[in-house]
Design a protein that fits this description.
By secondary structure, this protein is an alpha/beta fold. The chain has helices spanning 49-57, 105-112, 120-128, 144-156, 174-190, 202-208, 226-229, and strands spanning 8-20, 23-34, 38-42, 64-69, 72-76, 81-82, 90-94, 162-166, 194-198, 211-216, 219-224. It has a 6-stranded mixed beta sheet with strand order 7-8-9-3-10-11, with helices on both faces. The protein has a 5-stranded antiparallel beta sheet with strand order 2-1-4-5-6, with no helix packed on it. It is globular. Bound molecules: adenosine-5'-triphosphate. The site of adenosine-5'-triphosphate has 12 residues, from β1 and α1. One of its GO terms (molecular function) is ATP binding. It holds the Pfam family ABC_tran. Residues 3-242 form the ABC transporter domain.
């Protein structure tokens, strides 16, 4: 039998009590994500999806457990380890663009560059995400889709091991969403970048990811390929492009 061996990028075994408007939920996860995988977290509002990303990023502390990324311990309650966010090698893009308004596109990217990193990384990203024409523009002059492309490029400046995407396209119109999905897939493939995305959009989940974690009330209820685990009755009639597999 042929076994495909994938190196593990993320080991996440954590618990965290959350207090929402509808009462408390206990987030309780035990999941491994392989290097170069594209995984989506899908589930109802308040299930804990954003909290999962925030714990990976070091912005929310688990009550217990362990987070290991590329064999580096980011969090281990039993050993009292909790790596600060700036030392976790990941990139993040959220729904809000959060660019510096007084800096150009180039300036926003340079700001993310570490001292010892070559500036050629920025040129490479401007080219890959087709932002060269916009490099001297300030965010106020850009469309929502362009701003989100800059946010994506900025998240990649430090060559992260892991890309976290929290509904990054939900503020954009459908045509722009489809374009941006393609940019995200392009960088995912170019860098074999392990990517974890929160999305509410079934079409997007099917197009983008190989694996879906369905999160309900803080628990992974299903884990598998999109077409096997998603509630497809809710699907819009038109599915666009995507990963061929
Ligand atoms: N720091 C925190 N401490 C305690 N509870 C929190 C904290 N942050 C969020 N919560 C609560 O945890 C619950 C889950 O929130 P979270 O944002 O992770 O859900 P979500 O699945 O991403 O929801 P949505 O799809 O609406 O964004 C919510 O009820 C929220 O109020």
């Amino acid at each position: 039998m042929h076994l495909k061996l994938t190196r593990i990028m993320i080991e996440l075994a954590i618990t965290r009590k959350l207090h929402g408007a509808g009462g408390a939920i206990n987030l309780n996860l035990d999941v491994r994500i392989g290097t170069g995988d594209f995984v989506t977290v899908y589930g109802p509002s308040g299930a804990g999806k954003t909290s999962v990303l925030r714990m990976l990023a070091g912005l929310l502390t688990p009550n217990d457990g362990r987070i290991v990324c590329d064999r580096q311990i980011w969090f281990d309650k039993s050993k009292d380890i909790n790596l600060r966010p700036q030392f976790r090698n990941l990139g993040m893009v959220f729904q809000e663009y959060s660019l510096f308004p007084n800096m150009t596109v180039q300036g926003n990217l340079e700001f993310a560059l570490q001292k010892d990193q070559p500036k050629s990384r920025i040129d490479e990203l401007l080219q890959l995400i087709e932002l060269e024409q916009l490099r001297d523009k300030k965010p106020a002059l850009l469309s929502g889709g362009q701003k989100q492309r800059v946010a994506l490029a900025r998240a990649l400046v430090r060559q992260p091991n892991l890309l976290l995407l929290d509904e990054p396209l939900s503020a954009l119109d459908t045509a722009m969403q489809i374009k941006l999905q393609d940019y995200i897939l392009r960088v995912h493939r170019q860098y074999n970048l392990t990517t974890l995305m929160v999305s509410h959009d079934l079409n997007e989940v099917i197009k983008m990811s190989k694996r879906v974690l369905i999160l309900e009330d803080g628990i992974i209820k299903k884990d598998g390929p999109p077409l096997e685990v998603l509630p497809l009755d809710n699907l819009k009639p038109f599915i666009t492009g995507g990963l061929s597999r």
